[in-house]
Amino acid sequence: MLTSKARRRVALKASAMAVLGAGIFAAIPVMAAVAAPAPVAYTCGPSGAPTATVPFQMELKTPAGTITPNATVTVTWDVKQPAAAESQLRATATITPNSTVGAVGTVSPSGSPLPSTSITASGAIRQPTTVTPSAALPLPTMTMVVRPTATGTVALRGGAFDIKVNNATYHCQPPTSGGPSVNLVVATGTPTASPTPTRTSPTPTPSSPRPTRTSTHTVTITPSPSESEPTRKSQTPKAGADTGAGGTMGPDGRLFILTGGALIVAAAGGGLLMRRRNAARG
After folding, report:
1. What gap in Å lies between CA 173 and CA 196, rounded to an integer?
2. 97 near 78, Cβ under 8 Å?
3. Angle CA(177)–CA(181)–CA(187) in degrees, nearest 5?
4. CA-CA distance, 59 to 40, in Å (whole number)?
5. For residue range 137-178, what is the model confidence (pLDDT) as tens digits?
6. Which sequence spans correspond to the domains of the chain?
7. Considering Cα of 48, then 52, then 57, then 58, what sign does the dihedral take?
8. pTM, full prediction
9. Helix (H) or strand (E) holding 110
10. Is residue 67 a contact partner of residue 149, using CB atoms and an 8 Å limit?
11. Which of 11, 72, 181, 186 has the most C-beta neighbours closer than 10 Å?
């Protein structure tokens, strides 16, 4: 079970969350009311005709983000017909298809970033369908371009404007308090550091290798007669035909054969002679 202190802490946290949630949900309608277009009662009517009070839904819009001096700023003047049909600005003549509906108005600035002279806002639309008399008059959105020259806040307030279509002109005059307004805040932007130049040493670009020229010289050397290989010449023995170097070996072998044969015959004869002598003695 929770102690009394623990229960007290839980109750305090729950009540704090409830208060925070209620504050958030209560702030949402306020923020939506601030962002929504506000009704401004203009007195309008065609030239030379009776006028009527028309509570237009108007809004001057500035770009989101930081606006810096000398920057080009486009401001939009949005004009819408009131929701109630009986309060709308109505056409007095037929508007044919593809007719151009133009709007021109004045916006008065007040503040140091802009001069105090009036600025013209304009716009145009092409009507795609036919608009019959007593129908709601189409209203273009007007824009203007300003260039603030210094920091500060300048108030922009819409003034009178005209709607022109075909040959008809509808003039609308703002109330004494003026038309829609917006504050244009010109602030100093975050300075951008100038880039520090980086010195880069030039990298030598390798040149393409030059092609190697190869020259081939053919040199033919002819040996002299003294250095050349000796010429082989056949030698024919003078004593007879060349039978395997026999002519260069000295005396002929037949002489030895004859001498041997004579020695054998002499030995045989001597033997016979000695045998005969021995037989005679005996």
Report:
1. 56
2. no
3. 140
4. 9
5. 999 999 999 999 889 999 999 999 999 999 899 999 999 999
6. 36-182
7. positive
8. 0.55
9. strand 99-110
10. no
11. 186
Burial 189-200 (b: 16+ CB within 10 A, else e): eeeeeeeeeeee
- Closest listed residue to residue 135, CA positions, set 94, 79, 171, 80: 94
33-45 tens-digit pLDDT: 334 688 999 999 9
Measured between alpha carbons, how far is residue 40 from residues 82, 143, 155, 174, 207 in Å?
Answer: 10, 18, 17, 8, 78
Contact 162, 171 (CB under 8 A): yes
Task: Please count the other Cβ atoms lying within 10 Å of the Cβ belonging to residue 46.
Answer: 17
Whole-angstrom distance, CA of residue 94 vs CA of residue 73: 37
The CATH code of the domain at 36-182 is: 2.60.40
**Euclidean distance between CA atoms 159 and 173, whole angstroms:** 7
